[in-house]
Amino acid sequence: MASIKPPGLPAFEIRVAAEHDIPALTALIIPTFAHYHIEQMLGNHPSAIEAASARHLRAHREHIAETGEASGIKCMALDPNSGEEVMAACAYWYFFPHPRSQESMDPSPNYLLSADWVPEENGEREKMRRCLQPVLTTRRKWVQGRGHAILMFMATEPAWRRQGAATAVVRWGLERCRELGIPAFLEASEEGAPVYKGLGFEVVDTVVMEVEGERAEFPVMMWWPPGTEEWEKKPLGE
């Protein structure tokens, strides 16, 4: 738990989400990313929150089983109107303090990227897996063989945007990475990339996804712990 108050902005408290918090995180995350075509095709849309929550809960449990680390992070604040505590932002920070084996990274590094729930009819599941493959390949390329953290699905309540909530969540995760001495990895949106860059992330690659003729590019960014040599800032084995 950590309290963070940027100058001139509201005070936020970062907490690790418990299992019973996952539906609330899902309810904020799904609408935030619903405009992406692939999210819609994966069934991640506001009309199917309950099913999406079950998937997020499974990913939460699997990560704890593998690493002992919870993944959900929530940023809490006091509503200035009601005085009640509310969730201003959330994210999934997947920490892997130690290098992962090839077996643990295949076929998918995270259940939310497996498409296991997509119906097999008409090859839909296989099509989704092909669409997601560039993401999985790029992640393995940059994090395989070293301890690392992956930041996924950063989301902020509309009323709390541009007030430092998302920044507080990222800084919390980077402080944990600093303590563990591991790099942080993410795929950024076009809007998010400048924010991450301001927090010390560097663009190292690009992920290109194609879904039914729709092409999307996402910058791949990494934050390196203090003391990282330049020769280390590349995929291991190169």
Automatic annotation (TrEMBL):
One of its GO terms (molecular function) is acyltransferase activity, transferring groups other than amino-acyl groups. The lineage of its organism: Eukaryota, Fungi, Dikarya, Ascomycota, Pezizomycotina. Residues 71-225 form the N-acetyltransferase domain. Pfam families: Acetyltransf_1. PANTHER family: GNAT FAMILY ACETYLTRANSFERASE (PTHR42791), N-ACETYLTRANSFERASE DOMAIN-CONTAINING PROTEIN (PTHR42791:SF14). InterPro entries: Acyl_CoA_acyltransferase, GNAT_dom, Trichothecene_AcTrans. It comes from Extremus antarcticus. This is N-acetyltransferase domain-containing protein.
